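Amino acids appear as letters; backbone shape is given numerically. Here is one record.
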Amino acid sequence: MTAAARGPSGRFLAATASEVYGHAVHVSDDLSSWRQIGEPPQWPAPDTGDGRKLNQVWTLVPAGDRWFAGVDEAGLFTSDDDGETWTPVDGLNEHATRGSWFPGAGGLCAHTVLADPKRPERIWCGISAVGVFRSDDGGATWHTKNDGIPAVIEDKTHKDIGRCVHAMVADPDDADLIYRREHVGMFRSRDGGERWERIENGLASWFGFPISMDRDTRALFCVPLESDEYRVPVDGALRVYRSTDGGDSWQACGNGLPCEHAYTSVLRKAMDVDHLSPCGVYFGTTSGSVYISNDAGASFSAIPAVLPRVYSVSVFVDA
């Protein structure tokens, strides 16, 4: 599974990818039985399009009565029939900067989509290694929102791209308050992405991939790694860092996690929270371990299994 989400109708959507069978989107109304849809997001055939290949669906996000799917090779698709059929969002997919987009180590992927719950026509999309775009008109037009973020590789023509966003979350009551895990640090915007500021006080390092937020307490969670060159926990101690003041400061949470010789990583989609009280925190590692906290990160335990490399963790609560 590469992505999963529940929509306003109660329907669940899940995306899968296979080197043999390709990518697919599945739907379920009860989490027990699943059906693969016949028309998943798809670029035109290479002989009729521009050679783009759709490798996988990275994220599935409801926005009002629509769904959005961010994909690799980077682009955005939308569905108006609860996931049954998908159409490309040309305003982003054919953006004026498209010719200068380039991939990060994980590919050229549109991995994060945020939607304003009060104004569903406002949408943000994070693309690696390009940056963040925002639409204020339901996806018809898009503008870069990377002011304050240092470029990884600055483009000669389009100075506002060349950023490598790793993950984003937004406050559920204030979509202008966005937190952004970037290749070059941790950032916050208070104005919908118009301007970004660093928020790294207390973090063990500036580098890492995932960021999650509890919608009730607004607690933030992340996993710092040593550096871009050494993508393992700092000093070999696996730690989740938590902020309870909107990113102004961070504290380490490591009770129950390996405190030495933990040479693994946590990828951008491999962390989630369940929004219970207290919230549960769940994450998986590239070495196949999955850790669970039932007390908002105060303590963790490992599930009694070793899995393959964990790329994605999604939590659903039967409410």
